[in-house]
Amino acid sequence: MAKNMRLKSERAKWGMSQQDLADAVDVTRQTISAIERGDYNPTINLCIRICRTLDVTLNDLFWEENDDEGI
Q1: By C-alpha distance, which of 51, 43, 48 is closest to 11?
Q2: Is residue 38 part of a domain?
Q3: What CATH number did the domain enclosing 35 receive?
Q4: Mind spelling out the 3-state secondary structure of the chain?
Q5: Which residue in 12, 20, 27, 53 has the fewest CB atoms around it within 10 Å?
Q6: 38-67 pLDDT, tens per residue?
Q7: What is the pTM of this model?
Q8: Residue 25: inside a domain
Q9: What is the radius of gyration, based on Cα positions, of the chain?
Q10: CA 28/CA 56 separation, integer angstroms
């Protein structure tokens, strides 16, 4: 799993720490850190909560550019 630099970038754009985002979506800071490192694959419900909090789409944060090659 690749690092999620887009999540980190969007979070920073909003001036949020990992803890701020974690509190907003009701998970631990360690969960946000693991998602950003690519060590944790979040549930779709968590992805949606993160996107709503950061005012972005699922595609903006979680769609990998090369995922559509085989479709």
Answers
A1: 51
A2: yes
A3: 1.10.260.40
A4: CCCCHHHHHHHHHCCCCHHHHHHHHCCCHHHHHHHHHCCCCCCHHHHHHHHHHHCCCHHHHHCCHHHHCCC
A5: 12
A6: 999 999 999 999 999 999 999 988 886 654
A7: 0.84
A8: yes
A9: 12
A10: 21
